[in-house]
Amino acid sequence: MFLCAILGCMDSEDKLQLLGTYDASYDVEGRPRTVRRPPLGQKNGPGGIFYADVSGGRCVPLLRVLMTNVCENDCRYCAINCHRQIRRTSFQPEELARTFMEMWQRRLVTGLFLSSGVAGGAAKTAERMLTTVEILRQRERFSGYIHLKLMPGQPADYIERAVALADRVSVNLEAATAEHLARIAPRKSYGLLLPPMEEVRRLQQRYPGQLRAGQITQLVVGAAGESDQQIMETSQGLYDRLAMRRVYYSAYQPVCGEELAPPVPPLRQHRLYQADWLLRFYGFRFPELPFEPGGSLPRDVDPKAAWALLHPERFPLEVNRATYDELLRVPGIGPVSARRILQLRSAHAFGDLKELARLGVAVKRACQFVLLDGRYLGDRRLLAQPRAVGDPFDGLRAGLDPVQLSLWSDNVQALAPAVA
After folding, report:
1. Interaxial angle between packed helices 266-281 and 303-310, expressed in degrees from 0 to 180 and rounded to the nearest 10
2. How far apart are CA 351 and CA 138, in angstroms?
3. Contact 268/222 with Cβ under 8 angstroms?
4. What is the helix (H) or strand (E) element at residue 109, kind and residue range?
5. pLDDT in tens, 251-303
6. How far is C-alpha 35 from the chain's CA centre?
7. In terms of Cα–Cα distance, which of 63, 61, 78, 68 is closest to 15?
8. CA distances (Å), 28 to each of 16, 32, 51, 278, 305, in order?
9. CATH for 12-288?
10. Does the CA dihedral 323-329-335-341 come out positive or negative?
11. Where do the domains of the chain lie?
């Protein structure tokens, strides 16, 4: 009764400020570097407006909001777990649907990302979220983007309703193994988290026209002591078994004064995203990824360049005869520039690095690994440098820019995955 009195004392704007500005460091949608910012000309926008980067370099505003920040779980990395001393509140379905439509009509947002704490059990929480989305789809005729979180343990028919209503659904797996999950989320288990993901996959196969933005998940990085190698092995399994659209990697940062582990540096998260791109877009498989002793991805050079340094038998590669898959393995050549090379070389043999640069190739990196019309234009002194014992990546690091090319633009200097 006391809790209900607290929840009822806030108006919708107050709730939006609280439930739309929660610490979502571990609930990522968009690029790792994306931040929430107010619309142009508006000093302080309504709470919950989150600017997500999508393919083509566009940036779209979403209302990212919790149904409630009341939660029965005790996930130790989460700012709203049941032990936190924070202000709690909830939206009612009609109230949240009305709030979203007002923001959409004012063109403050283009879509909705709805998550929630677990209050009153998974089924009750999921029912309130589904009711909100049903109001938007069926009564308000909203046809735009909706990402809906699934509550672990919610009934299978609720999952089917979610898949029919949303563009994207997700359950956060949180940790690379069941043992690591037990360390940071005592009330969760793989036995609770994997079944809804598997049910979503079955529904995707049964109804291929639904869920156009697919299913995603997320792993918290560094809170439980897992290695990069364990993380990427899990990701490969999710892509293979569940046709996961994306795995997100969230660098652990202590919340509410509880430190499970040292804060994870952004570079580690960045390297995981780069390795993930190799799996999804560059034709790599998990066993090919380069790991240092202890299971870490190299920090001083990106994973693609590290792989190339471990395979000198593959290089230098003749650009004018290489296949698309071979070109993708060259540091400095991305999907866009590889396609451009194939399109143009039938009428023109490439013989100059400037020609490759005009196609988007990062020639400072690529020149060490390619031949142009039989000529090697890289620095042979770099190739001849001795490598330190136990460090196969030493020697060429100084000559390589440690940035992996983006899928959407060959000149983007930070990894930029799409969200929809």
Report:
1. 70
2. 60
3. yes
4. none
5. 999 887 888 899 999 999 999 999 999 999 999 999 999 999 999 999 999 99
6. 14
7. 68
8. 18, 7, 11, 20, 27
9. 3.20.20.70
10. negative
11. 12-288, 303-399
